[in-house]
Write a structure and sequence with these properties.
With 755 residues, the chain is an alpha/beta fold. It is 35% helix and 14% strand. The chain has 27 helices and 20 strands. The radius of gyration is 28 Å and the shape is globular.
Length: 755
């Protein structure tokens, strides 16, 4: 690889080991408003459960990573002076950096000073089981370790006297609990759970939360962020010797929890074999019986989806009975009702749009004239196809976004009620430049009623045609809401880049619709321009090609470990890119595979804040001028800037609009935003992007992740490369992390193939 570092780059400083716990206080996780629960206590939420965090496609760089916390080799001295090098290759070339596994944020002893004795005992028991010193059964059957009595909360009844240490007492009959929040607080205290869980428990379990927890302590698992080991400790504290791994309440709660976790990774259902295996891993003695009980109780739905016969399968004998001829392999799926109903509703909605569309022959000349005047052959093809069908898919890269915009403009010229929806506010602004501000909306704003044409007298969206860009970002529930809102006879065009990551929420709507082949599909022939477009186009077909970058459009920065990756990233954003490329720091976005790890978003944001906007973190770790990302709902990431803070909360400016985040929600909903994950960055673009590929993220890389991250920069892409051969291997061999869904099967069952 030829090297030619950016003009005037100074030699990098000596690489030093950066501890992730040094980055944590500068991020939202350390905010005073966040629950102060011990790391192993009930309710201590893992970072992966926070709104907007990276789901399945994220690299395992967080605290639950297979490599997190493993020993790291010492850095081998400073990087060479030409480490910031331009290359005419893709990111696969160059010297092989010595990667270093990431470290667990906070270290082994982080937060231990604030743990209760019960939490310490629980943590010790969990470690003993994980290390093999104790069996999973003994974890439940042995007496609970002694713990000093907890002081009673002020709002609780008269305090009980201190008891001498001893085994857990036999449960006594349930006492009447105080009403409302006081009752929830009392139950949590009795089970050793932090009081900070009071509000989440009440919100999740409703008015009878206290009674529900006393009757079934494992219902604590329904609260976001609570893990099975924490719920087990809570149940053991309340139930004593009666608590065991085979308790039916535990099995049912764990079944629901596993399906919810699967949804966070994008699945709308799980195969029965996978769910049985997952139940066995959390020490459920009889997974089959647990599944039968969950199905009988109505908490889990069971489906049989037909599978395509494998190629070369033996045909049925000529004299075989009819039922034998019709025999087809099936798979048994289990899922939660909310996702099952969403997929079924979406399939019904797609079928309704196809069947209720009536081709208006009298307007055919207008559509043909619009197609003739289209700016490109692909735009003309899309206009002609949408003229004759109620449901159409359109695939293409960034340059192809002009084609659905041309369709919307053509429909506007014919007097139709039209709307164009994008995933992000940045996408909406780019759409507005082509179709006008009145027609451009975000999907979230359209569904919330804050943007768009409004509803007609029947409650349907007042549109004749709607084009949804960034369609791969539609999760199954949002897509179902959108399709249910469309009137009969309306045209729906779903447009997107098939190479990008799927939605942050469950489902793979766009991919399933394309695979089902139940509507016309238009594939753009408009390539993305420039060296970045050429590089990304190659990645899309599994090739990490060499590209010529005479204007330093693509720059590769090889690094040896995560510490050097953080240092070089800061240098790029703060100095090299502004000086050599002309893109200021505030228009450069850093993208990294995960939130945790020594080069995750937390570590990078801490380092970038210290360089670009140092301050004491006057409000929950934030200062005026900080770049942040606000996640008002899972899957929605709104970049913004901190303006100020007052008694009402943290005041932000997001896409030019003021936003006030209440004080108690800042720790959960706001992160520093100089560095994002690829899921958070999807649907938006910046003049420059710096993609960080640390060695400890290599196992989580996929072609879709690389494609999404590399395509976020408009003028410039820098790749801080420490993943060695994992990068070209991911591009060539790992297209995506698959998801189990039912939409494709439902569509193929309900809708005839496209003619």
């Amino acid at each position: 690889m030829t090297t030619d570092h950016l003009a005037g780059d100074p030699p990098p400083e000596e690489a030093t080991e950066a501890s992730a716990d040094r980055a944590a206080p500068a991020d939202a996780q350390a905010a005073p408003s966040a629950p102060g629960s011990p790391a192993d206590g009930p309710g201590a939420a893992s970072a992966a459960a926070r709104p907007g965090d990276e789901p399945e496609e994220a690299a395992p760089a967080d605290a639950e990573s297979a490599t997190a916390g493993s020993p790291r080799p010492e850095a081998g001295g400073g990087a060479p002076a030409d480490a910031h090098a331009e290359t005419g290759t893709g990111a696969s070339g160059g010297p092989a950096p010595a990667d270093a596994p990431g470290q667990t944020p906070g270290g082994a002893g982080a937060g231990s000073g604030g743990r209760s004795a019960a939490a310490e005992a629980l943590a010790a028991a969990v470690r003993a089981v994980e290390s093999g010193e104790r069996s999973a059964a003994s974890f439940f059957n042995e007496p609970r370790p002694a713990a000093p009595a907890r002081p009673r909360a002020a709002a609780a009844p008269a305090p009980e006297p201190s008891r001498a240490p001893g085994p857990a007492p036999v449960p006594t009959p349930v006492r009447p609990v105080a009403a409302g929040m006081d009752g929830v607080r009392e139950v949590l205290t009795a089970g050793g759970a932090p009081e900070a869980l009071t509000a989440p428990v009440a919100e999740t379990l409703g008015e009878r939360a206290a009674e529900a927890l006393r009757e079934d302590p494992w219902q604590l698992l329904a609260v976001p962020g609570v893990r099975p080991d924490q719920a087990d400790g809570f149940a053991r504290a309340l139930l004593g010797p009666e608590c065991g791994p085979g308790d039916e309440r535990r099995s049912q709660a764990l079944t629901g929890w596993l399906l919810e976790r699967a949804a966070l990774e994008g699945h709308t259902a799980l195969e029965s074999s996978a769910l049985r295996a997952a139940l066995a891993k959390v020490s459920v003695p009889d997974p089959d019986e647990a599944l039968r009980a969950a199905i009988a109780g109505g908490g889990v739905l069971v489906f049989q989806d037909a599978l395509e016969a494998p190629a070369g399968a033996r045909p049925a004998a000529p004299d075989a009975p009819d039922d034998e001829e019709a025999e087809q392999p099936v798979r048994v799926l289990l899922g939660l009702d909310r996702y099952a109903l969403a997929e079924e509703s979406l399939a019904d909605g797609f079928a309704r749009l196809i069947s209720t569309f009536v081709d208006a022959h009298e307007s055919a000349p207008d559509w043909e004239a619009a197609a003739t005047a289209a700016p490109s052959p692909s735009a003309a093809e899309l206009i002609r196809t949408a003229a004759a069908h109620g449901l159409v898919t359109h695939s293409g890269g960034e340059a192809a976004r002009a084609e659905p915009a041309a369709l919307v403009a053509a429909a506007q010229s014919m007097g139709l009620r039209v709307c164009a929806a994008a995933h992000s506010e940045d996408g909406r602004r780019r759409l507005a430049a082509e179709v006008g501000a009145d027609a451009a909306v975000t999907v979230a704003g359209l569904l919330a009623g804050s943007e768009g044409p409004g509803r007609d007298e029947d409650g349907a969206l007042a549109v004749d045609l709607i084009a949804v860009l960034d369609a791969p970002q539609l999760d199954v529930e949002s897509a179902a809401m959108l399709v249910e809102s469309l009137p009969d006879g309306a045209r729906l065009v779903l447009s997107g880049d098939p190479g990008v990551l799927w939605s942050a929420g469950p489902g793979r709507v766009f991919a399933d619709l394309v695979a089902a082949r139940r509507c016309p599909q238009v594939v753009s022939r408009t390539p993305d321009p420039g060296p970045i477009g050429e590089l990304v186009s190659g990645i899309g077909i599994g090739e990490l090609n060499q590209v010529e970058a005479p204007g330093k459009e693509v720059v590769i920065v090889p690094v040896r470990d995560a510490s050097e990756a953080v240092h070089r990233t800061v240098q790029l954003v703060a100095d090299s890119v502004p000086r050599a490329i002309g893109v200021p720091s505030e228009q450069t976005q850093v993208i990294t595979p995960g939130h945790g790890g020594a080069a995750g978003t937390r570590a990078l944001n801490a380092a970038l804040k210290e360089r670009l906007n140092p301050g004491p973190g006057r409000f929950a770790g934030f200062d005026p001028g900080d770049r942040v990302v606000y996640t008002p709902a899972p899957g929605r990431a709104l970049p913004g800037t901190v303006v100020s803070a007052d008694a009402e909360g943290l005041r932000l400016e997001c896409a030019g609009a003021p936003v006030v985040v209440p004080r108690e929600q800042v720790g959960d909903l706001v992160r520093h935003g100089w560095a994002l994950t690829a899921h958070q960055a999807a649907g938006a673009r910046w003049p420059a992007a710096v993609v960080v590929l640390p060695g400890d993220a290599a196992a989580g890389l996929t072609r879709a992740w690389v494609y999404t991250a590399f395509s976020r920069g408009e003028r410039h892409l820098s790749v801080v490369h420490g993943a060695e051969a994992a990068l070209p291997r991911a591009v060539a061999e790992i297209p995506f992390k698959d998801r189990t869904t039912r939409l494709r099967t439902l569509l193929q069952t309900q809708t005839p193939p496209t003619g």
